[in-house]
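Case study: Helix-turn-helix transcriptional regulator.
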Amino acid sequence: MTNQNNIGSSFDSFLNDQGILKVCEERAEIEILVDQIKAAMEERNINITQMAELMGTSRAQVNRLLDATAESNINLQTLRKAANAVGRRLSLTLEEPLQESA
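Here is what the predicted structure looks like once written out:
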């Protein structure tokens, strides 16, 4: 088996060159949160109707929130409501940027 070195730039560099790195990162972060909300709903046996009631919103809004493929504008208030509805707390942190290795 031969040890091959990576050739070319990283995938992040490619996305950055295409001008879509930030959009991809934001979408991935939202999808991770949505997956966590879905898992918490499943753990607590909460269906869409119950979730809407707990969030004080409509079933359609909950469906939009849970549709990871949708191009929706999910805001922090909605994510906080969803987290609270499933007995969780939304936590955000401000972190140092990753340093790319040379």
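For the exam, be able to explain this: The two ends are 25 Å apart (CA to CA).
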